[in-house]
Structure formats: structure tokens, C-alpha cells
Amino acid sequence: MISYLESLLIFTALAIILASSLNLVLGYGGMFSVAHAVFYGVGAYTASLLALHLSNSLVLSILCAIITGGLAGLLLAVPALRVKEEYFVVASLGFQIIASTVFNQWDAVTGGIGGLTGIPPASLFGYEIDSYGAHLVVTSLLAAAVLAIVAALMRSSFGRALRALRDDEQALSSLGRNPTHLRLVTVALSAMIASVAGVLYAYFTSFVNPESFTLDESVMMMVMVIIGGAGTVWGPPLGAAFVTIFPALLSFLKLPSSLLGPVQRLTYGVIMTLLMIYEPAGIVGLLRWVRRRQIILNGINGSNRAAA
Amino acid sequence: MARTAPLLELIGLSKSFGGVKAIDDLSLVIADSGVTSLVGPNGAGKTTLFNLITGFLVPDRGRIMLRGRDITRLPPYKVARAGVARTFQNLRLFPTLTVFENVAVACEASDITLSEKNVSKLVDSTLERVGLLARRDVRVADLSFAEQKFVSLARAIVRPANLLLLDEPAAGLDGRALERFHQIVRSLAAEGRSVLLIEHNLDTVRGISDSVAFLDQGRLIATGTPGEIFAMEELAALYFGDDR
Amino acid sequence: MTSSKWLRSLLVGALSVLASAMPLTVSAQDYSIGVIFPLSGPNVVYGETFSKGVDLAVKNLNESEELPHRIKTLYEDSRALPQPAIIAMNKLVNVENVPFVISAFSGVTKAIAPIATRRKVLVMNGGGVSPELAGLSPYLFNDIPLVNDEISALLPYVTSKLHLRRISLIYVNDPFGQGVLGVFSAQCPKLGCEAIPISISPTASDFQAEVAKIRSAKSDAVFIASYGQQQNVILKQLRDGGINAQLLSYSGIDLPDTLRLPAAQGLIFTVENVDLGSDDPITKKFNESFRAVYHSEPSFYQVNYYNAVVLFAACVKRLVAKNQPVTGENLLQALREIKTFNVVGGTVSFQPNGTVRQAIQIMKVVDGQPQPLAVVK
User: What gap in Å lies between CA A158 and CA A175, rounded to an integer?
Assistant: First the structure.
């Protein structure tokens, strides 16, 4: 049981890193990107290739992945941001498709559809990260660090400019700020963070193939950000946890195999649709509502007691 | 050369939208300091002229020189960094940001290098100047209209710009707010900045302008002191229609 | 207050999920086996097809009472993707404590293989054919011939018996096609034949350039390594392009509609030597029950997945006889000891790298029907 929970929490922590990084682009930058799985993949392949051919040092892998991930981010952003902002989603779709093709076809490097197997465990300060417990500690610490970085970033002048950009791009440019430059930095930064998740994924699963970095995965990350609450620090991690843990909970429903898949997906879909209809601000919005209600209820109870 | 060139020189500017001439062969020189009011009937091309100067529109013909430097085709953010600040008729504040943040964003462009602490000092002193220091941490969406107008003014004047373009900054203000606005504009001119403003209220124009430029159908009809301009009968006819 | 209503329904939903999450009575006596198939998503049709084989085998074995306890299947949805598969595998292994897991799809199987090794759980793959599955984990077995084995059987036959020397190889550029190319490159030098590789994209549908290359290469034979509808297009365009060389292929081309094409006349190909007409009790039972339960003809995959359970039962029987507990480690030991298993369609054994060793049949298309030429053990 413990190992199962550990594996689930590891994937949750990875999802939190991915959703938080996408939130920079989507929630704060206002750019709809359906290419985030590409950066996740670039990080995973970078770490796998390093571990298979050079070194399994986690620190080195993360540094290299930040570089390759950042470059991949620029590769998307530089051409995409030349055109109008509205086309960014289309450009990112094209980028995702091209990247998927590269993952699938560049056999010499990515191993093609078959992927890369037998990735050795990572080493950190002389220790081998082999057990699930060790993976969980490392992944959780990095997820916490990412959350802290995003929160700090949003309080900084960079975050201020990014939120202003989302509100009114033209007004921002009239104040001497270059919107394209801001977006470029945001996409690159977000890609760097996502690629770190890729590194952790590769070392945990010790197997990477293109199936984990598809358009579907990118869309799933978008779902995490949106149902959690885009443009908030805590929304995307909550959304990530929901999207990862909820289907796992559903899998404990004892159903015949022919019903299992459809019932799980349907329940999941219905709950997400309801959430979006009744609470478009996402899970964070829902929590705020509950808290407000609680304060009011406490107030009423308090005055009742006083009256009695 | 920079010393001798005028602050802003518009040379033969033209801009059409689908065959309609919004600005038609317009030339104008704006002095180094003082307050110039752009007046004229609705649709005269005043806001279009602001958009051309600040890079939001590219003229079909003509050039825009800032201290002798051609800024005609620069993107808005580069025009801003060259020393031009503006406000918008519909304000265009950042509604999810606080008053402080709205103004802070304006003084963190790469042409200004201030530490976080100095940004905070500069913003606070500017907010004090426009009378909004008490509302510093309120989201601008929660402000009154008059307060929002002063945020937009603060955002423009916090930048180290020699040329300020204010698009109907006094519209909707009255009483003490209007008085404060007059005061601020005069003090900007006294600091040696040049203010170009679009204004409909002729009392305001008379009260704060050093010179007036009269536009009609995209053409510059006349320039002069407020006294000279308001003395011209034919301009009054253009402005108010024939029924006066 | 629609919000409060919906919040309440969410709570009720969550509670009912939690309630049903309480361990449902899996009798400690049952032999639990895990099954990781795509049960939703674009590959759900495979999951449905495969599970028919598994379910039928479990039903038959439980009814026969050959084992002291019943077999119980625990299904998990992989969506044919690595990450859900890893979560599913961890649940099966760490929560349900199953000693045996049936898997499908190469990516899924590769993703769960490290967990199988770590937790000493036997994994039986009956669907993925990627060559890299061979030897991936001591606990991973593939009861489906990886495409390599078919080619290894075909090449000696066509070079020695049919004297074909120059063989053009049209292959889809994916792990399967590269596997085929790998076998050609390794075996041709030894057998005195020459392979002329021509790669195509999995989505290509126009092969004029490839036909021209084959024509100028003056090959004795053309091997087609593709699948689905693309095979038919290649066959037609080769014949229309005036290529009269002997055509060769593998089991993927064994589809009735394809074999009936005029262009397929004289084609030589290989199939797994599964004799569904065999008289042995296991095969007979399979044939009868499959038709009775599903009212259709079984597919090659369904035979594999039926056999996966048959293999498990055989290992359990041995452990029961030796009075040993049914653990992954013991199952592995039993599998290695039994060596040869009686399954549907004949017998199978496993190579040291975990892949099935099965006789391969060489077939030739005559009048739209496959006719056996030879069996290669």
C-alpha cells in the first residue's frame, strides 16, 4: 500500500510542477499553449540520454534539462510570438505535432516509438535515488521549490508586468515594456521548469517513450491549470492533484472490466464539467466560497450562542 | 544637434482608414515645455494623432521626429523609452493590479534602472502628488472613476518622459478633482516637461494652456495662444456648428 | 443556491467512492491476477478484445475446478499509456499483492517491467511485439512471437529452398519495421542473401518511388513489412508497377480480404503455428466455449491471452503439488522448470530472454487461400 501511495504522490508532485509551470504561460501570461508536454519530454529525453551515456548525476541532469528545455521554449516562442498573440495556440499545436514527430522518428537519439529503456537510477551527492521513498522526497522538495519560485516570481516586478500584460497589452507597451520580450522570457522559464519534471519522470520510470509527451498530455496539463484556477499560485497544484488522484480513487470502484473504463472516464468528465459550469474560477474558487460560508456560519452560531 | 532640434516635430503626417483621411498632411512643432491643447470637433483626428506619435499606428506618409530623432516606425514600447508617455481616453488601467502596482509597472521598463526600494519611493511620491497614496493597495477595479483617472495620470507622469500626451484627462472631473488636475498639469509644465492634451472643456483649455492647436478633418487649421484662437469666429463656427 | 446543491452532490459522490474503495472481499483463498489493458481511450477496442480471451480462460478454469481455489482477475485501465500503467501496476502489486500480471502494448509493458523486477512479479505480455521487450526483465515473458522469430524462420527457407538471393525490403519506419530490418541485416550475410532496405512512413499511401527502386534493383523477391490497409496498397502498386518478383511477408498480412486480392497471388508468408483444428482437449475446449460464449471466431490475440491464463494455471498446479505458496518468485521458478506447456493450438516454451518459442508455419497464397508450405520448429 505504501509503495502505491508513494508512486501516486510522485506522479502528483510531477503534475504539480508541470501545472505550475504551465500556469506561468497560461494563467499569468494569458497565452494558450498546448505544447507543454514537449518541454516535459525534452527534459525526460535529456536526462535519459545523459544517464545512459554519460552520467546519472541528478544535478547535472537538471542543469542540462533546464538548458535544453529553455532552448525548446525559445524554439516555440521566437517564431510564435512574431505573429499575433491570438495565433499562439495554433503555433503551439504545430510545435507539439512537430515535436511528437521528432520524438517518434529520430530513432538514433530518442529510440523512436520504442523509446529508451533501462535508465539507471539517479545519483545525488553520492546517494543513489532508487527507492520510491527517496524519489518521493526529491520530487516533493522540487515541487515545493517550484511553488515557492512561482509565488515569489509573481510578487516580483516580473510577475507584476506579466499580470499587467494579461490585463492590457497595449497599455503596457505604452509604458515602455516590450510585451514580446516578456512573453518570450515567460515561455522559456516555464519550459525550463517543465523540463525538470521530465528529468524526475525519466529517473522514476526508467523508461521514456513518445506516448508520455503527446498532445493529450499537453491538454491534460491545461485541464489541471484551468480546473484548479488559472492565474493563482495554489489553483494549478490543486488541479494537478485532482487530475492525478481522482482517477486513481475511481479505480477502486469494483466494476466489471467492460464497465470500468467508461464509468471512470464518465464520472471524471461529469465532475469536471460540473465544476467548470458552477465554479469557473476552479477549485481555488470553490475553496474560497467554502471559507466565506464558514465565516458567515460561525458568525451566526456565535450570535445565537450570545442570544441564548 | 539634439540641443537645437525641437522636442517634437510632425512633418507632413497623413493617415487614412479605408479611404477616409483621419490625418491629412499635418505638420506641427511642440515646444520643449509648456502645455499645448489639441482642440477640434469630434472626429477631427486628435486621438489618431496621439496613436501615430506613440507608435500604435504607422502613418501612411510623413515623419515624426523626437529631438531630431526619427521615431516614425518605432513600436510603442520604444517610443515610450525614447521619452513619450501617454494616457488613454478609456484609461486602460490594469484592473486586477493594485493602484501601487499599476504605477510601479510603468517605472520598471529597462530604460529605468531603479532598485525595488527606489521604485517604491518613486511610486509613493507620485501617488501622493495625485492624491492617491491612501488608496495605494486597492485594486483599481474597486476605485471611483475620478480616482481611476488619477491612476492613469500617475502611470504616465511617473516615467521620465519629456513629452506627455494626455487624452481627455479632465473629462468627467469636477470640483476639487478638476482643481487638483489643473494644479498637477501646471506643475508638470513648471518642471520643464511638455504636455500635449486633448480637451473639450474650453474653460479648462483657457485655464491651463500656453498654446492651442485647432484640428478639423485631420488638418491643422490654426495654432496660437488660447486668446488668439478663441477670438477667431470661423473656428467657433466649426467647433460649435452654425447654430451658435 | 445551486452552488451548495452541487457541493453536496460532490460530497456524496466522493463518499460513495471512498465507501466502495474499502477493500471488497477478495477471498484470501482466491488466486488474484492483475490485468492491465486499455479500458478507455482510443485503444479501448484492444482492451475489449483481449479481455475476452482472459475472461474465457478464467471462466473455464474455475468451472473445471482443476485448481484448489478460484482465479480472480483484477482489471486496471492503462489507456495504453505508460503513466497510468505504472500507477495501475503499483496498485496491483502493492495494494492487491498479485503475483502475476497480464499486460498489453509495448510501451505499457516496458514501463511496468522495472516494477516487475523490483517486486518480483511475473508479467505476461500477449500483445506488444516490440523487439526490445526481449530480455527486458527476468520476470517479463512474451507469449506472442516477436516479429524477429518469424523472419528467422522464413529467411533460411526462401534462400535454400527457393534460391532467392536479392531481397528488397519495404519496411515501415517504426520499432516493428526496424526489428525486421535488424533480422535481415543480421541473417542475410550468413545465408548468402542480400537485403536492399527501403523504408516507408507508417502513413504513406503512394509507393511509385519505391516501386521504381525495386525495379532498378532487379530483386528476386520483395519482403513487405507493413500492416493494415497499407499492405493492400503496397501489394497492388507493386503488381501494377510490373514487379514480378516473389512477394514475401509475415503474419500481419494474414487477413482474408488481403489474401483474396489478385495481387496477393503466390505471396509467401509466415504465421505462428497455432493449429486451432488440433484435437487436444485444451484447444477443443477453447474452440467450443469461445463460439458458445461470444458467437464469433477467435482472433490470434484472444488465443494468446487465453493462453496467458492457461500458463499461469499450469504454474500454480505445479506449486500446489510442491506445496509452495503462489508468489511471483515461485511462479517464475515453476515456469522455468515446466519448460514446455500445452496450450491452445499446440505447445509453447520460452527462450531465455522471455519470448515464446513457437513453431512457425510458412504459407503460400493459392487461389486466394493460404496453403501450408512447411513448418519450421
Answer: 14
